[in-house]
Every structure is written in C-alpha cells, then in structure tokens.
Amino acid sequence: MTPKEMWQAYKKINPEIGDEINAWAFGTLADQLADLVLRGEKTATASAYELYKLENEPVPQVGSFDVILDSQGRAVCIIEVTKVSVLPFNEVSAEHAFKEGEGDKSLAYWQQVHQELFTKWLAEVGLEFSQESGVVLEEFHKVYPVSKI
User: Fold this and answer.
1) Alpha helix locations (H) across 1-149?
2) Which residues face 84 on adjacent strands?
C-alpha cells in the first residue's frame, strides 16, 4: 500500500488529519523497526537534534500523524505523536529505551546502538557526537491499522 492510499483509508476514520502526509522509514533496520511498531512493541524513537538544526527542520509535534514506511517505501502503519522532548544523550532514561522496543530493551543496548548511529550520522555532516549531544525523543501510538483484540 502506498502512503497516500493508507492516509486516505485512515482519513475515512479520522477526517481531521488533513491532506498533508508525513511519511518516513526508520534510519536503520526499517523493516524490523516498522514491524515492532505495527505489533505495538515500539512506542518511541530517538533522533539526533543537531540534524534538525542543520536542516532547519522543526522537531516533531505532539498530535501530528506520520506514516511509517518499510525499506521499500511501502506504508506499514500510521502513528500519532504523543510526547516530544529534547535531552542530552546522557540523560535518556531506561524507560525511554524500553519504549523503543529494540534489542533487549535495556538502556545499555539503546546507548550502544544510538551512540554508533549518531556518531556516524553527525560525522557525515562534519559534526562530532558527545554524551551531551541533543536527542529528540518521541513517543507515539499506532492508530492505523486498528488492532483487533
């Protein structure tokens, strides 16, 4: 299903979402992470704040809706952002790491994986990662497709 097709299907349930579609895939392991969201195991994500500043992009907003894509650009599900904060890397909590649903869900795992990713991504634009680097933390819930109980 294309992002537009999924958006239109969800719009029949929630007409207030408007017409502007924000669709994206997780930077690494797009299929695996999208599947975790689809199953309700991943309810948070993190990104490097410096990249938002560099690209002059606003951080995600509470109440916004996003189409999550797989590695082929196909729509997997739609999420609603419920919480956004920006913290230094070294202040990200174990609770947030658990909500990301990756690996063993521990803070140690989260720190290892994200330090590697952020170091790589920041280096690509000439910036250095540090423990004080800003991290955009998002929490969300899947709104479409609707889970069947």
Assistant:
1) 3-13, 30-38, 49-54, 94-100, 107-124
2) 138
